[in-house]
Amino acid sequence: MLLCELCGQALRTEPEMRRHLLRAHLEREPRCPLCSFSAPGYDELRAHVDSAHPEPRPGPAPAGGRPQCPFCGETGASGRQVEAHVRSRHGHLLDPPAPGNDQQLYECPMCDLVCANGQILQEHVDLHLEEHRFSEDINVGGSLSDLELAQQLQNEEDRQQGLEEARREREEFQKLQRQYGLDSSGGYKQQSLKNMEREVARGRMQPSEYHKRKADMMESLAFGVDDGKTKTSGVIEALSGYYQNEIKDVRRVWLSTGVDHFHSSLGDKGWGCGYRNFQMLLSSLLRNGMYNDCLRDITLIPCIPKIQSMIEDAWKEGFDPRGASHFSNRLHGTKAWIGACEIYSLLTSLRLKCQIIDFHKPTGPLGTHPRLFEWVLSYYSSNREGGTKVVCTPKPPIYMQHQGHSRTIVGIEERKNRTLCLLIFDPGCPSQEMQKLLKQSNDDTSLKLLRKFVGSLKDKQYQIVAVDGELSPEEKVVRCQASQVFTAARIP
Question: Cys-Cys with 113: which of 98, 108, 180, 400 at CB 3.0–4.6 Å?
Answer without folding.
Answer: 108
